[in-house]
Amino acid sequence: MDQFDRAQELDAYYRDQAIELHRKRMEVGGDSLTHCLECGGEIPEARRTILPGCTHCVDCVEEFERKRKRL
Ligand SMILES: [Zn+2]
């Protein structure tokens, strides 16, 4: 395994951990919020039904994961 592979593996590891943490945090509670904690935008009912306890809209979750990928 060369250094590049190692860096990739580490990157994937930290990203998975971050996503898992974020997922757990979003699952806390049980009641879904009607509005995103981050941007205040409305969270569609379909999303609240699929993800009980969700607190962020899909845009913010995607933004969060994009930021993680840049690290
Ligand atoms: Zn949002």
Task: Summarize the helices and strands and which ones pair or pack.
Blueprint: H1 3-27, H2 45-50, H3 58-70
The structure holds zinc ion (ZN).
- Regarding quaternary structure, how should these chains be classified? single chain
Structural category is mainly alpha
Number of E-type strands: 0
Q: What about the largest sheet?
A: none
What is the typical, i.e. mean, pLDDT? 84
* Tally of alpha and pi helices: 3
What proportion of the residues form beta strands (DSSP E)? under 5%
Please compute the radius of gyration using only Cα atoms: 15 Å
User: What compounds are bound to the protein?
Assistant: zinc ion
* Total domains: 1
Helix content: 55-70%
Spans of 5+ residues with little confidence (pLDDT < 50)? none
Shape: elongated
Order of helices and strands: HHH
Task: Kindly report how far apart the N and C termini lie.
Answer: 22 Å
Can you offer a commentary on this structure?
The protein is an all-alpha fold. It has one domain (3-70). It has helices at residues 3-27, 45-50, 58-70. Bound molecules: zinc ion. Zinc ion is lined by residues 36, 38-39, 41, 56-57, 59-60.
